[in-house]
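User: Fold both of these, please.

Assistant: Here is the first one.
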Amino acid sequence: MRSIAFAIAYWAITIVHVLAAAAAALAPGRGAVRRVSNRYARRMVWAMRVFAGIRLEVRGRERLPQGAFIIAAKHQSWGDGFCAYSQFEDLAFVTGNHLERFPLLKGVLAKLGAIVVDNCGGPEARRALAASAAEAHKEGRKILIYPEGHLAPVGQRYRYRTGVFHMARDFQMPVVPVATNLGLFWPQQKFEKRPGTAVLEFLEPIPAGLPRGEFMARLEEAVESRTAELVAEATGQPVTPSVLAIPEAEQAQAAAAEAKASA
């Protein structure tokens, strides 16, 4: 019953706010559409609590650095973005181009200054990421990215992509790792919701300037180990994350993109 109630609330809130954001996107500047988007994220966190029984506990805000920084978060749930976005007033976020297929969203994402990249990666995606991130950095905005590029089931992880390292290196921005256990209560994109207290935790920032291998190892260790601890805290059972392979279809598309770029 909770899942049905939340699904109704989810679509009602989404439709209202997408229409409002599309109208706000016609106004000059980014302020109007940003306010609608912030309200949308906070309404969704409210709906999670009221209809699905999922309460959000945020930890580690005192660790956040001053000024612009990159947020590199674990991605277990479709609700991750709402939870993270609701914590900031002006947040640029990296998203796959699949969202542009939804009616009205392409214009809204452009007006928001979202960093839209090809889901399959490759050189073109890296160039798009660099260009969009440069614009966000120039405006002094914080940037949210999910380094795995996929929704991973609880207890599993995908290989971390290096786009976050290149952004940190190019713009000399610290990176804040983020752990979560939201996937226990809202698994990936599943209909079923389970009541409980989900944790979103900001961890110690990683400074810019580290070699790529050291940076990626430090980021992955911080996110995955703390996420496993949060899952164990909620379930009472230890978790050792296993690595998932990137889907074969996506690997083929990424290889084709690489070959095209080098031709």
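And the second sequence with its predicted structure:
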Amino acid sequence: MSTIIFETERLIVAKIDLQNSLEIDKLLNIHNDHETMMWIPNKKKTYNKNSLEIKYSINKGLYNISYGIYKILFKKTNEVIGEFGLFPYIEKPTSVEIGYIIDRRYWKKGLGTELVKNCETYIKETLHKQFIIAQLIEQNIASHQLLRNLSYQLIAKTTIDKLIVRLTLQKEL
């Protein structure tokens, strides 16, 4: 099994195995599902296996074990259901930025809340950071509500496109 970063009651966050084609195929399906990805404001609309492997390879080379993009596994089925990112937040060295993509079939089951709560413990105890930053687009009401329920505070609103406003939220640990 891949290196585990942290676990929750129902989830495992672990390194992505670029040699595991079933794992890459599952992540590819998630990345190419329009409804799942509609909250991710990037210019890439479709991925192929090669472009996704390049994304993960570049990521792997950028960060040490504590930072980067990881897979999210659903423990009950051992299925890859998304990805979770931990990134240095350059503007504030005492902070770490998080991001997550969860397959839409797993929405509204409390998994996002479970994931973020447990990442907070990992960030505080392992990375020894004081703040967590999360950025999302304003229209992503569910993620915004999840973060507000976990006491994240809005610290910035930035227009990144004519129709897209990015919210930056922060939580002190």
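The first helix runs from residue 21 to 31.
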